[in-house]
Amino acid sequence: MTTFSPARAVPVRRVQWRAGRLPEVAAWAVLVVVAAFAVAPGLFSDLSPIAIDPAGAMRGPGAAHWFGTDQLGRDQFTRVVHGTRPSLLIGLGATVLAVAGGALIGLLAVVGMRYAEQVLMRLVDILLSLPTMLLALLVITVLGEGSGNVMFAIAIAFIPGYARIVRAEALVVVRSGYVEAARALGLRQSVLVVRHVLPNALGPLLVLATVGFGTALIAASGLSFLGFGAEPPSPEWGVMLSEGRNYLSTAWWLGVFPGGAMTLTVIAVNIVGRAAQNRFTRRAPR
Amino acid sequence: MIAVLIRRAASALAVLLGAATLAFAALELIPGDKVAALLGPATSASEQVKAQIRAEYGFDRPIVVQYLHYLGRLVRGDLGDSYQLSRPVAGLLAEQLWPTAQLALAAIALAVALAVLSAVVTAGRRAGRAVATAWELAAVSLPSFWLGILLLTVFSFQLGMFPVVGGEGISALVLPAVTLALPIAGMLAQVLREGLEAALAQPFAVTARARGLSHTAVRVRHTLRHATVPLATLTGWLTGSLLGGAVLVETVFGRPGVGALTLQAVSNKDMPVVIGVVLLSAVVFVVISAVVDALYAVVDPRLKAG
């Protein structure tokens, strides 16, 4: 009888592990490139994203212009690279604001008086019943247009979702043994929340915020596409698509590349977010 | 049963009242003179007209009185006038509702069909899972406005199969409906597939398989029903959110509808119209929630007892 050798089983497992991780590795690679575009666009193209060259307008993609040129002769590859920063910043800012606002409301609902919780969560329910896009548009009508206001609008539209998640997470933490122990030790309510409840609810929140960042990116570009956020000649991807939309019959590349960059970024963000989510739920099963 | 109905009606009313209050607060929050905001940025109305509006809306009275007055007008179905188009908002919404409803219904039907097909074919199969995960991920990551531009480029401009802008009839509905449906289909397929996989692992599915039913028959006849409750919840919620998505899709395809009306209103700071759309969306949400609740009882008899 041959004995089972564990040494043989190990490599097989390792190969499987690697194949399963392939999308995540690719996603991280995409995100590194995107981050580099955002931080130092000048490294990837020495052309200007806004310099006009009427003689070279409407060229198709080729060796000279990888993504072609637009109706004003601007190099589309340069514009996509330079557009990374404005496209990502609004979504990133909105996500940070929404997570902070959601954490505040969610925690207040947990530790506050009973009727404060009722009022806050009722408000959250009402806001959740409205489409986020519509809520963002309502805020823009009140505040006015512009990149900063679009960021606020998306943040406000996303706060209710985060508030509900934080509350759910915080309720679990509040009922756990160590919080009870800390309370029994005589810790003040505020210390309890900041030192124990918040850090423990933060992990799942940050993981969800990663996926939420992808959604915020799409919303931000969508609002810029509609003409409420960044303005031409900014190479923001939504603005580029909105301009390129007028030339779809003759210049397909104007509609393809900015949206492709956006979609690829969001797919990468979602893959990384989900992988983190899986790892998180596996480590702390509930 | 009656207690349940009363509780449902109360929560529906709470949502409507909440949305109305939110809209009222939004109007209050607009910086500057409210009369000017209602009249629009471009008008140079005489002091007499302004005084008339002030009296009509009761802006000179305490805010609580104004609020009650506003609620009273809403109850009577008076959403105010659009200053941009100088017409009652309720009439404008009623006119634009049908094209958007067509679009939304076509999109939701398509999304559910795609999701069911994908989930039934791929659930519980190793290879299927990889394919399903990939397309679901791509679908939820696609910005709808870009998807619309891609479809227009390929099918309208290159192949000439569908009209480029607006148009009427089925052929004009296909591309916008697909655009609106695909991201939703991705979400639905994901939830449905997970539900199916959970149901397939249960003893009754094994029993059905042991009775000699084929893989597909087990999925379609037995486990699909179990996975329908979360699907119905999500579908209801997503249908409500389509009103937001319609703004982008109607813009890309140059279609008339509530979305196009909203875009125009937000650009012109036409607050009465924007508020009207928000209230409409709250009503849609309440109606759909009621329909989904009724569906639960049909799909899952266990819920009727509780």
TrEMBL record, chain A:
Superkingdom to which the source organism belongs: Bacteria
PROSITE patterns, per the entry: ABC_TM1
GO biological process: transmembrane transport
Membrane topology: Multi-pass membrane protein
Domain called ABC transmembrane type-1: residue spans: 84-273
Alphabetized UniProt keyword annotations: Cell membrane, Membrane, Transmembrane, Transmembrane helix, Transport
TM stretches of this protein: 25-44, 88-111, 123-144, 150-166, 205-230, 250-273
Cellular component GO terms, alphabetical: plasma membrane
Location in or out of the cell: Cell membrane
Family membership noted in the UniProt record: Belongs to the binding-protein-dependent transport system permease family.
Protein name: Peptide ABC transporter permease
Species name: Sinosporangium siamense
Record lineage: Bacteria, Bacillati, Actinomycetota, Actinomycetes, Streptosporangiales
Automatic annotation (TrEMBL), chain B:
Segments traversing the membrane: 103-123, 135-157, 169-192, 229-253, 273-299
UniProt keyword list: Cell membrane, Membrane, Signal, Transmembrane, Transmembrane helix, Transport
Record-annotated ABC transmembrane type-1 domain positions: 97-296
GO cellular component, one term: plasma membrane
Compartmental location: Cell membrane
Matches recorded under InterPro entries: BPD_transp_1_N, MetI-like, MetI-like_sf
Membrane topology: Multi-pass membrane protein
GO terms of molecular function: dipeptide transmembrane transporter activity
Signal peptide start-end: 1-25
Pfam families membership: BPD_transp_1, BPD_transp_1_N
Protein family according to the UniProt entry: Belongs to the binding-protein-dependent transport system permease family.
Name recorded for this polypeptide: ABC transporter permease
Organism: Sinosporangium siamense
